[in-house]
Design brief:
alpha/beta; Rossmann fold; 6-stranded parallel sheet; 6 helices
């Protein structure tokens, strides 16, 4: 039997969540991603905060993949109420900690960061008071030492009671990463309009158990 097609908002049950709450400013979400186009008309940028002087929250190049990705995810979290793509938590405070460099991408390569950069960003967001972390990031040049730093940072987040939501990835692979296999992480995969994982979604024991 074919599953019925659902609207994207009904698929994630956003209307029922919005009927209960649109969030509160004291709830802080750490966005570890690319920088954000602060002048985008659909973003509730009055709720967006920069937490690092070393990594500017605003885009320097709006045509960069890092800016596009960061702005897209910021919109999912904090778009204005009534915009064409309603956000999950428009009244929450968004703590932006970019880790993607705004460089020219080659061969369509998506932005990525080193494990050390990711670990540092996790610690900064947690220490800035984030209640939730949003990670949609791939790490480059993984190493045992780098992965230990990421694991230590995720342990710090767990001890502080921070919920870490992380994209499992879009390579169509079976397995997990240092991010998704951490017991304090909620892995997330992409679904189609029938509520089934798309072919590109990475799957594994962590997504089956906690995703």
């Amino acid at each position: 039997m074919t599953s019925p097609l659902l609207s994207p908002l009904d698929l994630v049950q956003l209307p029922s969540v919005m009927a209960v709450t649109r969030g509160r400013p004291e709830i802080r979400i750490g966005l570890i991603d690319g920088p954000v186009a602060m002048d985008h008309p659909d973003l509730a940028t009055e709720n967006v905060r920069q937490i690092s002087e070393k990594a500017k929250a605003a885009c320097g190049r709006t045509d960069s993949a890092a800016c596009r990705h960061g702005t897209f995810v910021a919109g999912i979290l904090s778009a204005r109420t009534g915009s064409i793509a309603p956000a999950i938590c428009p009244r929450c405070t968004l703590l932006v900690r970019p880790i993607f460099a705004e460089t020219t991408e080659r061969n369509g390569q998506l932005p990525n960061a080193s494990p050390e950069d990711l670990a540092a960003a996790i610690l900064e967001c947690v220490d800035a008071g984030a209640h939730v972390l949003n990670l949609s990031v791939a790490v480059n040049q993984p190493s045992a030492q780098g992965e230990r730093r990421v694991e230590d940072a995720l342990n710090h987040a767990a001890r502080r009671g921070v919920v870490v939501v992380a994209a499992a990835g879009n390579e169509g692979m079976i397995g997990s990463s240092v991010i998704t296999r951490h017991p304090g992480t909620v892995p997330v995969v992409a679904y189609d309009s029938r509520g089934r994982p798309i072919n590109q979604s990475n799957l594994g024991a962590s997504t089956a158990g906690r995703g």
